[in-house]
Design a protein that fits this description.
about 325 residues, mainly alpha
């Protein structure tokens, strides 16, 4: 209910006074070669994100690139079309069903990956906002909240894996049924094990490097998508837009981030000489293109992984 109300309000302010005829003409004049390039950058980014998650998963076992990629795409498909980021549960379930890893461990790595994305987002945003004027006011306000979340998350990833003995001792001291105690001990063990995947310099270095390349690929996709519509977005403004979309996606949202993404695009791009109509045309095309890529890879991912039963021992390539 809250997400629908928020989306409705933001969408109203985004489309108020928009010339829909001009929006339609801008979209109709899109150059396909640039759209194809944007789709290629989006696909590359998704592939790199699968490689990045695989770094964490392979801390305890081994997965082929194909298995993690298809599961990841099924998860992104779920995030785009289902509420409450249900895709995180989908991809975690698909991966745990193809290994001896517990669902708790896999979900912890998935959520930790998202948390590290938030930390990277805050760092990127702080650097970009220092050198960009004018600055979207809503981004500065939300940035402070996200910075606190990112800071708390970084401390949790750094310290929590070292508290296993303390957590175990606490759970053994609290009066509770023995069956519940056993389940809670196992749950805590798997969560701490998932967080501990970052406590290896080679894995952390690979994760950070892939995160940088992912952001560069995403920015190139924004630039190519804008060129398709005859617009010019610089690399720095593309990063600012991506930061805004990332911050906006942290808000309660409807499937597809309808309303939120329109508001972000209009408020971020218009101060840099891109009209409201063109900004709206761009984000509609970007969302449609992203959804097409997710469907193209997400649906086959669901089909491929559904065909592999637990215990079959088969990894997809």
């Amino acid at each position: 209910m809250l997400s629908s109300l928020l989306a409705g309000v933001l969408l109203y302010f985004s489309v108020r006074g928009v010339d829909w005829g001009r929006v339609g003409r801008t979209i109709a004049g899109a150059q396909w070669r640039y759209l194809a390039a944007a789709a290629a950058f989006i696909s590359t980014s998704f592939f790199l994100r699968a490689l990045r998650w695989r770094i964490l998963l392979n801390a305890e076992t081994w997965f082929s690139v194909g298995t993690v990629f298809w599961a990841n795409m099924a998860g992104y498909l779920g995030n785009n079309f289902l509420p409450a980021r249900a895709g995180e549960l989908i991809r975690s379930f698909l991966i745990s069903n193809r290994s001896s890893l517990s669902k708790t461990y896999v979900l912890t790595t998935a959520l930790s990956e998202r948390l590290m994305d938030v930390i990277a987002l805050v760092l990127w945003s702080s650097l970009i906002l220092l050198g960009v004027n004018p600055k979207p006011q809503w981004m500065q306000g939300l940035f402070k909240t996200m910075a606190m979340v990112a800071g708390a998350g970084a401390v949790a990833i750094l310290l929590l894996p070292h508290t296993g003995g303390l957590v175990e001792d606490l759970l053994r001291r609290i009066p509770m049924p023995e069956g519940l105690r056993t389940r809670l001990l196992h749950l805590a063990e798997q969560i701490l094990l998932g967080l501990r995947a970052f406590h290896d310099w080679s894995r952390l270095t690979g994760f950070v490097l892939l995160t940088v390349v992912i952001w560069v690929s995403d920015a190139c996709g924004v630039i190519a998508g804008s060129r398709a519509l005859g617009l010019t977005i610089s690399f720095r403004v593309a990063l600012l837009l991506l930061s805004g979309l990332g911050l906006g996606s942290a808000l309660p949202s409807t499937p597809g981030y309808v309303g939120i993404y329109q508001f972000v695009a209009v408020t971020v791009l218009t101060p840099f000489g891109i009209g409201r109509d063109e900004a709206l045309a761009y984000i509609l095309v970007a969302q449609a293109l992203g959804s097409v890529v997710m469907l193209a890879f997400g649906l086959p991912g669901l089909y491929k992984l559904k065909a592999v039963r637990r215990g079959g021992g088969r990894q997809l390539s």
